[in-house]
Structures are given as C-alpha cells and as structure tokens.
Write a structure and sequence with these properties.
Number of helices of chain A: 11
Largest interface: A-B, 55 and 55 residues
Shape of chain A: globular
Number of strands of chain A: 15
Oligomer: homodimer
Order of helices and strands of chain A: EEEHHEEEEEEHHEHEHEHEHEHEHH
Largest sheet of chain A: 7 strands, antiparallel
Mean pLDDT of chain A: 94
Radius of gyration of chain A: 20 Å
Low-confidence stretches of chain A: none
Chain lengths: 338, 338
C-alpha cells in the first residue's frame, strides 16, 4: 500500500494513481519490461472508441500509464499482464525469482506500478500484445511465473493471462456428483478454449462451444475441443438458450461466460438449468445485470464471479496447452493472426 | 418481451424503455399501486446526488418512471419492489393471485412496467418507501407474494425486498461439512440482520456482525443476532480484515456483503479465509473490483453474485421475521424511524 498515491488507504487495484518509481523496497522486485498483454475487453473498448485508429489507441494507453502509474482502463476497469526480465530482487521478497529470470505476472496490470520509457514506439496499437521498454514493480503478495523454456513466451503469456478460467471451470465440474453438461460462451477464444478443454478433462458429460461467426465455428470444430459447436449471439437471450438446449438436449448444468462483450448475462442465465451454475469470466460482466437478471427470470442458478487466482492455475493451464493439441492449435493460430 | 420498446430484442430488465400501458395481454396481471420500496443503493445515490433535497429526489424518480416506463436507476442499475392490489388477471396468467389480493412483487422494479398517475404527491422524497397511485404490469414469469394477514404490510414489504439474502446465506452455510464461521458486513441492516439470523439457524459455528457506527452496534447487540459485533469501515480492507479476525479468531469462512456503499470488495476478500466464500448482495458491488481484487490478493475464495431468487425464499424470510425476536425488533425500529 506504500505505492498508493491517491486516494490514500485503498489497495493498489482500487487506487487512481500508483507511485511507479524504480527504486524498490526490501520486499519488492523490479522487472525490466518486454511486453504488455492488454486485457481483451480493455483492448476492444479502446479499439472501438478510436474506430481502429492504432495511433490513437497507442496514445491513450500511454496516457493512462503516465497518468495512473499503471495500465488500468477507466471504462472497463481491467488491465492485463506483462512479461519481462527480473532486474532486482529486494532482500525480503518472498517471490521465487532471481535476477535474469524471464517472468510473467499473474496479477492484473490494474495493481502493478508501471513506467514506460519508449513511448510505446514499437507498437502499432492494433493488437493486444504491446512490446515496450520500462519497468514494473512486484509486491510481496504478487503472483509471478517463470516462463517455461519449452514454449514460445508469447504463447505462455497468452495462456497465463486467462489461466484462472480453466482452473475454476474444472473445479466447478468436479463439484457435481453426476457429470454435468457444460456450455462455454466464446468457446473459440483464449479463455473459452481452455475452459472447454478443462471441462472435458474434469469429466463433463457433454460440452457445447458457442461462437458468434462461422470462421470461429470452423476453427473450434477443427480443434475438436467440444462435443458440439453452435453459432449464436450471446447477447440474444432467447436465441442463445434455444441453441444451447438444442445442442445439449436441454439447458446446461454449467455455463461459462468467456465473451468479452457486454450484455451476455441474461442469455447465460436463461441457458442454464435450474440448480445450475454460471461462471462469469468476462470482464464486461455487469454485477447488477446478473443479479437482477436471475431474480427477474426467477432462475435458481448459482452465479460465480470468475476469480483469476486459484492455487496451481498457471501450471494447469500450461499443461492443457502442452497436452491438448486443439488448444495448442487455436493459440498458435491466434498468435499468428496478431 | 412484447413490452420492450427499446432496444428491441432484449429482456425487460435490460431494456431502456418499457411500454407501461394498462391494457393487459392474456398472460399478464395489472396491479393497482399502493407503495414502491426503492432499492437502498438507488435511494442513497439519489439522496446524495441531491444533497438530501426531497423535492429534487421525488422529481428525479418521477422523471425516471415517465421516461423509462419502469423505476430503473441509471446510475446504480437497481430498482426496488412494490405493493398493491390485483386489479385484473389475464385468463392465461399462471400467477397464483386473484383480483382484490394485496400483493408484493418479488422481481425488481427494473423489469416491471410502471405508470404513476399522482405525480408522487404523497411522498416527501426522504425515505425509501414511496406511496403512490398508478398501475404496474406483471408477466407470466414474475414472482409475486400475497401479503400475509398477520403482519404490517410495510414490514412484509421490507422483508420481502431482501429475501434472497437469508436464503442464499443459509444455503452457503449448509454447503460446508464443518460448521463455518460467518461475517456479515452491514449486519444491522435489512438484508444483514436476516443473513445473520439465517447463518445461525443454518448452523454457523460463530458469527460476527460488522457495522460502521456505534448506534448500529448497540442496536445489533440488543437484537442478539450475532456472536460478536464489531465496529469497522468495510471500505478499509486492512482494518476490516483485522476486526473480523479479532472477533472470529481468524478470517471468516463465509463473508456476506450487505453494505450498500461502493468499495467493499477488497475488504470482504481480505477478511475471508483461503478456500472460503464471499457472497455479494450489495447492488453497489463492482464485478471488476471483485474479480481483479481476488486475483491481485492471490486469494482463493469463491465469490457469489447474490441471486435475489431462490425457491421458497419469501416464506423463509417471513418465517425468520416471525420466529426471531431480534429480527422483528430491528425491522420494527427501522420502520418507525422511516
């Protein structure tokens, strides 16, 4: 909390501005920046705001970092993560890293002090991955992963960014006495494809991946991650519920929301069986829309806020990438397209 | 959905504007209005915005209803509920009501078509309970309770407004193999006192009610609903966690958030044990603050979005009011103060 500039007394994530100076305290770590990975909802909001003008997106990201001392999108409330090289480790830091380690942070950029020194000159503002120079500060309670040698670091970063989704999906499926059916909205995306693979590995009876466009349907079918793949707009509650029920033979026991657009709460609730569970991973989720939507639909569903941290989540997500060819293929395609 | 004016295709809760005309379809019910009960977060936002000027609050509520065809606060996203008398029941309505029944709606005002005809002339804009004339429309999927004869209808309304909280708290406590410890933030309020009573009845090992001011501490102590009562600001994460741990001998297994102010997410997470559960009932909860807060604190907690609907929730909450003298006393005091 000593890095919180304003307002005083809050935790770093809630702060408007952090102190990003490079000198570290005894329990801190300084990382030399290599690349930021913006949260998908944040990047989409910025890209849409500026009509795809990359230079304007770059200027706004730079301005947010300079103003706030962290990358914290004020509209979406979300950040992303980073990779870099450990430059200095305070003598009292409990983090398992040494100078020279190449690492990824698994806590959000919204609470990570950040200073950029190259004006983001190496980024065209057209993708979520932002090469940059500068430094970031890690606290004693940060979560950080040393990047594995056997994987392209961009691949590791993309997986680690969403590694809470497969871990919580697996835990939710394991919580059912009978194997549940699982629907994943946004099944061809990063968190969605990992969630589908996790649901299957955890013993789901059947899975359906819901995607918005034919190109994603074809990619997800080729990846072979879901029992069924259907085309539907997750913002259309009635259409979505009908598509899921058609694919699974009834509403889903577990619905996992991985679509990074607003307005999917009601569809997810309506697509879920009474007594079922909705797991919201999208940072575009509205608490009020979910709470009032379930009440308004008289839907007895358990609604979980997707927690980005579970013990062992990074190792689990990387193991899915290594062992499930369809996951590896989708991530590789995505990187190639960036 | 036929009452949705704009945007087309969404469910009534998500709509900007509803058609509130009084003629009903075959599966609808028209209710003659008697009183609205504004959601606490909504009323607080309006009262603070207008600096306690009751006439200005009244004018804004009237303007929202006229503009949107429902009482849907655009800032908080929340509504409230109503009581009235059934005026007409369509021949195909599945709701268990007859003309002349005095009823309360258990679905939010944010999805209930509403027309006010008296300009809210009987309300001074200084309390959540709004006497008014006009009508509301109930859909086939609405949830409605006939008001019990043995209770003051204002008392029933106040309880029914928050009846999801005790039901979900009880279900959460029942989900633990060993009796859990339970902290309720805002323990002296409507949902908070019911949640404390429900936690005890469901078998919690120990409970702590957290309140912000000495007057509430004294009231909650007198009501005898919690094992411990502590004074703390739920927006101060470090102070809150220390208070809860001091009262319970360690962090809470279950933390229930019933405070209607923003910024309590991080404190609730920090006050909760690893492997524990946070239940967010406050409509002032930010999805992003909760999701990123847990990730940033590396906290392995299950976070539930408080669902206002569970089967049997109305009967359960009314039974707590009837059988737990401390609950009855707190609600009666609250009504007397309004």
């Amino acid at each position: 909390m000593r890095r919180v500039v304003e307002p005083a007394g809050v935790l770093p994530q809630a702060a408007y501005r952090l102190d990003a100076r490079g000198e570290i305290a005894a329990d801190e770590v300084r990382v030399r920046l290599e690349r930021l990975n913006l949260d998908a909802a944040s990047f989409r909001q910025l890209a849409e705001k500026h009509g795809g003008d990359g230079a304007a997106v770059r200027a706004e990201v730079l301005s947010i970092i300079q103003d706030r001392g962290k990358m914290h999108n004020p509209v979406t409330g979300s950040g992303g993560m980073l990779i870099g090289t450990v430059a200095e480790v305070g003598p009292e830091s409990p983090l398992p890293v040494r100078p020279g380690d190449r690492v990824a942070t698994l806590v959000s950029l919204t609470l990570t002090p950040l200073a950029v020194t190259d004006g983001l000159a190496g980024w065209d503002g057209r993708g979520e991955q932002v090469p940059c120079a500068g430094h970031a500060i890690l606290f004693a309670r940060s979560v950080v992963a040393v990047l594995p040698d056997d994987l392209d670091p961009r691949l590791s970063l993309a997986v680690l960014d969403v590694c809470g989704a497969p871990a919580l999906t697996a835990r939710t499926v394991h919580g059912y006495a009978e194997p549940p059916t699982v629907a994943v909205l946004g099944g061809a995306g990063k968190s969605g494809s990992l969630a589908l693979a996790a649901a299957r590995q955890a013993g789901a009876a059947r899975t359906v991946g819901v995607v918005p466009v034919p190109a994603e349907r074809d990619r997800l079918l080729a990846a072979g991650l879901a029992t069924e793949v259907v085309l539907a707009d997750a913002r259309d509650p009635v259409g979505l519920a009908a598509s899921v029920a058609g694919a699974l033979g009834g509403p889903a026991d577990v619905t996992v929301v991985c679509v990074d657009v607003p307005g999917c709460e009601h569809g997810a609730i309506l697509a879920t069986a009474d007594g079922g569970t909705v797991v919201f991973f999208s940072m575009a989720t509205s608490f009020a829309a979910a709470a009032l939507g379930a009440e308004g639909l008289a839907a007895d569903v358990t609604m979980l806020i997707g927690n980005g941290y579970l013990p062992g989540h990074a190792e689990y997500a990387l193991s899915l990438l290594r062992t499930v060819p369809g996951v590896r293929a989708l991530f590789a395609e995505r990187l190639a397209a960036d």
